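Let's practice the habit of predicting before peeking. Look at the sequence and jot down your guess about where helices and strands might fall. Then scroll down.
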Amino acid sequence: MRLVVVGAAGRMGRMLIRTIAESRDCVLSGAIERPGTAAIGQDAGIVAGMPSCGVTVMDEPGPAFAEADGVLDFTTPEATLAFSSLAAQARIVHIVGTTGMESAHLSELERAARNAVIIQSGNMSLGVNILAALIRKVAATLDSEWDIEVLEMHHRMKIDAPSGAALLLGEAAAAGRQMGLPGQRVAARDGHTGARTVGTIGFAALRGGTVIGDHKVIFAGGGERLELSHIAEDRSLFAQGAIKAALWGRDCKPGLYSMADVLGLDAP
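Done guessing? Here is the structure:
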């Protein structure tokens, strides 16, 4: 499968290029960066810290998309929407691991998905998505007297909070209780907050060091706690999940899919 990496010079872009090089099922056919980026014109393999691979980093995605089967995208919400339009025109699979996506962005992706296969997730890790399925089941089993808190920690350079994975887990908990997350989410606590409101889902975000991604969901009941967690030890796991999603989506009909679809977690 011929894959384009957008944001090729970033942390995830470089990891995607290296992971594609190690895969037997796909090849790097294009690498895209923003105009003016120092990596433009360089070999993508060299940019990723590997030997030369013969693919030059470009600033024009259209021609690269036209020669590809899919695009791997861990950029920014605004860039992702631009790429989604181009991917839809080229009729290629668009894998979206971009974080910080809001409802307006997702609505735009839904429109683009009328003509393309888009697989979007707040986290491409297989483990995180399996954890989300477990959290949904636990939340459906326990009543609202069990308080739910979502705790996450990432490296000091992360620019959005809470993380996409934290929101994914919070949404899973809310879905288990058959309610929407926006109306129940408590984003932060500071000062004299009063007692915790029954049924809400709290979030706490920590930032520091080089932490790739730690996530924990706490179900706190009377006299006992249940804690479900995931620790990311290597950024390559996100790249591996993205490639798995691309290969899965290659034969799908146009539509907006999730990693739960890729893993069959919503299947009967």
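How did you do? The mean pLDDT is 94.
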